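Weekly modeling sync, notes
Attendees: S.R. (lead), two postdocs, one rotation student

Agenda item 3: backlog of single-chain predictions. S.R. asked that every request posted to the team notebook include the full sequence so nobody has to chase files. The rotation student volunteered to paste the first one in as an example of the format we agreed on. Action items at the bottom.

Example entry:
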Amino acid sequence: MGKIDETKSGKISIRNVTKVYDPDGANVMALDDFSLEIDSGDFIAVVGPSGCGKSTLLNILAGFDTLTEGQIVLDGKNLASIETIPKPGNDRVVVFQQGALFPWKTVMENITYGLIKSGSTDLDEIEARAREFLKRSGNLEEIANVYPAQLSSGMQRRVEIIRAIINDPKLLLLDEPFRAMDTVNKAKMHQHLLKTYQENKKTILFITHDLEEALFLADRVIVMTTRPGKMKLDIQVDIPRPRDQTILASDAYLELRKKTVFAVREEAQKAFERGEREMA
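Predicted structure, as returned to the notebook:
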């Protein structure tokens, strides 16, 4: 019980994707001819200034938004194109920046909600599976009957990640899930996410503004330009797993950070200057 379905792949091909919004007849290009290949089980972090299109990309992948040109393929099957109607699916799960637990449901009810909704009928087996995931995530069985409001923000995040993983998706989409946390809790959540990733090896696309977070967590870091979003850098993070906080002082990590920080700051400065002009 709890074993990952090895027949699931999670290989993503993002091909020349462009997204244009048209508020009041004024074309606003969020993504411009963006392409990215993601192998099964890869942990990809996407960084860039506000408005660079990274959340737009995540929403298209999740089935929440359309694209204007291009195509996205998941395991050889069309996921998004100009002919496709956007549709979320069980093969993709999103963990949002703002918490999305049902406040009127217990932790157990939140975790098992997706399994029950998808048609699973053996409630005893579902609950046993949920308890196994709670145990694997730091012996959290004691909070099974607790409501979200009784939990810290960090604990709520852990429950949301469990709820996502237990549904056995091909692709886990995380939209700045730790942005509002303080440094200590964020570090704890990084370790929890890395442990969860190591155990489950799901394909992950992680959106963040935090370069250090991206380099610490990911196999590859994609640096995007300011709007319209294009790929500026594709950085391979050649730091062995499992990882802990000690790598933040390693020569390999510091060299990667030095290599990328200028590119990120350059795009942030462009976004800031453009914002000043737009406000003028």
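Discussion: group reviewed the output briefly. Residues 251-279 form the longest helix (29 residues).
Action items: rotation student to repeat for the remaining queue; S.R. to check formatting next week.
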